[in-house]
Structures are given as C-alpha cells and as structure tokens.
Amino acid sequence: METQCIQEFIKKNLFSIESRIKLAQSRSPNSSESIRLLAVSKHQDLKKINILQDIFKNRNVLLHLGESYAQELKEKKKELGEGVCFHFIGRIQKNKIRDIVRYSEVIESVDSKEHAILINLEGEQLSRKIKIFVQVNISEDEKKAGFNSDNALNFFTKVLPELKNIEVLGLMTMLKYYEEPESGRKDYAALRRFRDFLMGNEAIRKILKRNMLELSMGLSEDFEIAVEEGATEVRIGTALFGERS
C-alpha cells in the first residue's frame, strides 16, 4: 500500500471511530464526557503509526499508543521519540518489569499484588511514581489475568497504602470471549459499578488522592458498548490500523 493510500486509510478509520464514539456517548446516560483513544500498535507497521502520529501532532494532541510486548515497546519508544505516551497493556512477566517501567508512561495490566510490589521497587530506584491501572478480571474468566473484585478491594485498602511509588489512574479489564459483543455489556457495567463502589469509600479516595478512577475497557469489536457503559479509554488496534503485520 502506497503512503498516500495508507494516509487515507488511517484518516478514514480514525474519523469513523471518533464518530462512533460520539454517537455512543450521546446514546447513554452512563457514558463519560471525555474518552481517550488508545491506539493499539502491537505488531503494526511503523509507517502506519508515523501517519497517525502526524495526524495527532497537527491537532496538537498527545498520541497514546498501547503495546503488549516489552521488546517491541522498547524498540517503538526509540523509533518514535517524543510526542507519544506509551501504555503497556500486555501480560506482565517478572523478568520484563524493569524494561516495562522504563519504556512506558502507564502500565495498564497490573494484575497481581506481586507485580505491583515489583513495579513499586522499580519506581523507588528511579525516584518517581509509576502510573498504573489495576486489571480486574470482571468476567471471572480463568483464561484471563487480573484481580477478582474481592482481591482488588483488598489491594486498594491493604496493599496500595504501602506502595509509595505507584499512582493508580484507573481500572482495566479484558473480557472473556463472547460470540456476540452485546453479551459483554453486563461485564462492562459491572466494572463501572465496582469503580463507583470504590469511589464511594472515603478511605480509598484518600489513599488514591483522587475522586475518580478511569475505566480502560472496550476493543475494536465492542468499543461502542464500552463507551455506553462508562469507558474513559478504549483500546483500538485493527479497526484503526487494519490487520497486524
């Protein structure tokens, strides 16, 4: 595909996604006023990412990219330079935590107390707070990573107060596979209700030092449903970039 064709392809997809997000917002009283597009760039051609980067640069808007593998994150960080905020969204491996912390601005897939403690240690060494999302397995799918609701509550009340180099921005979830995207609506609604439950707890608000948590939920195939159920960020790859390399 020639560069001009790729540009038109990306522009068309971006316009479509943003229009669909706005329509979904208008349909639901549960939708968030502000929704961030996290462009999932794993295994995507650098040419496509550069084009998207230019579009956002011309808008004077920061581009947020999602990566799932530490090595690819490291390479993309070096290639793309400034003007990009990298979110790590893949399964965390203990031996990759150092690179994940150093090469991403946000870690969205913090799925265990052990990983949070190790990330906090890296933050101590760097003398900075590491921004994270807590991954909640809201579908209770054995194949998916993440805290269940009880463990997540325990993490916020018992573990997080001791982790001085972590800042929790929000909750993230990966739903189990549903043949019909609409079937996942109940899970997205459950995550929103769990977030609201946490935010209703004054002690947790004091620990977090914030009055609201973000919700990272929704993919290419179901992001409109996630928006209707309160997503503040949607993670979109193939609907934006096309098939992966």
Automatic annotation (TrEMBL):
Domain Alanine racemase N-terminal: 62-244
InterPro entries xrefs: Ala_racemase_N, PLP-binding_barrel, PyrdxlP_homeostasis
Keyword list, A-Z: Pyridoxal phosphate
Single GO MF descriptor: pyridoxal phosphate binding
N6-(pyridoxal phosphate)lysine carried by residues: K42
Stored PROSITE patterns: UPF0001
Transmembrane domains' residue ranges: none
Function (record text): Pyridoxal 5'-phosphate (PLP)-binding protein, which is involved in PLP homeostasis.
Family membership: Belongs to the pyridoxal phosphate-binding protein YggS/PROSC family.
Protein name: Pyridoxal phosphate homeostasis protein
Higher taxonomy: Bacteria, Deltaproteobacteria, SAR324 cluster
